[in-house]
């Protein structure tokens, strides 16, 4: 089976699949276990670079999961190589729940979603968060693009496995940038029409 399914489809999950009648379909994807991490392919890397945010899930010492949204300009999550993601983390509400969780257990899940194109990618990895001065060379590499604000640490995710989700039930939504880009030709056309109307009104006003 794939590395992602190997990690996600635990004994309890397989039991539920049996109960719900989907084990046969899931079983068709079972192959020899994959022990090596999955390298990101070009499609996945480009998809991650194209987004302006993602969901970051970690687990604390109590066993409870915690999900945090990370946002920034397109490309603020840098794909350093097929096995490594990184970004500069800026100061937020200063609770540091994710950072604390990662120190106790570096296993994380990332969820990348593009509502406009109804596409999503789920990823397992091992995360670390270190002060910027521990790796100034990498910090400089991650400087552009990055999220605005006071940079506090470098977050690195070593990719373990990933899989594409089906597009079902993803509500199409568009960012302000996407809407502006889509409407730009309309605004340009309206501006030209207004200029033409102004000229015609001036000509009409000048007639005796």
From TrEMBL:
Regions of compositional bias (Basic and acidic residues) in chain numbering: 29-41
Pfam families per UniProt: PNPOx_N (PF01243)
Region Disordered, residue ranges: 15-41
Entries under InterPro entries matching the protein: Pyridox_Oxase_N (IPR011576), Split_barrel_FMN-bd (IPR012349)
Domain Pyridoxamine 5'-phosphate oxidase N-terminal: 43-139
PANTHER family: FAD-BINDING, PUTATIVE (AFU_ORTHOLOGUE AFUA_6G07600)-RELATED
Protein name in UniProt: Pyridoxamine 5'-phosphate oxidase family protein
Annotated source species: Streptomyces microflavus (Streptomyces lipmanii)
Taxonomy of the source species: Bacteria, Bacillati, Actinomycetota, Actinomycetes, Kitasatosporales
């Amino acid at each position: 089976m794939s590395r992602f399914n190997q990690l996600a489809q635990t004994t309890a999950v397989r039991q539920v699949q049996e109960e719900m009648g989907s084990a046969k379909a899931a079983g068709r994807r079972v192959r020899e276990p994959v022990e090596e991490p999955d390298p990101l392919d070009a499609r996945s890397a480009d998809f991650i670079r194209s987004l302006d945010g993602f969901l970051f899930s970690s687990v604390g010492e109590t066993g409870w999961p915690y999900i945090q949204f990370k946002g920034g300009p397109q490309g603020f999550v840098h794909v350093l190589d097929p096995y490594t993601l990184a970004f500069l983390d800026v100061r937020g509400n200063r609770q540091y729940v994710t950072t604390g969780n990662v120190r106790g257990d570096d296993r994380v899940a990332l969820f990348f979603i593009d509502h406009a194109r109804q596409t999503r990618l789920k990823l397992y990895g091992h995360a670390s968060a270190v002060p910027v001065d521990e790796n100034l060379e990498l910090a400089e590499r991650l400087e552009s693009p990055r999220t605005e604000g006071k940079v506090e640490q470098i977050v690195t995710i070593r990719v373990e496995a990933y899989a594409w989700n089906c597009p079902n039930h993803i509500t199409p939504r568009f960012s302000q940038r996407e809407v502006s880009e889509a409407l730009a030709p309309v605004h340009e056309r309206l501006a030209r029409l207004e200029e033409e109307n102004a000229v015609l009104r001036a000509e009409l006003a000048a007639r005796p």
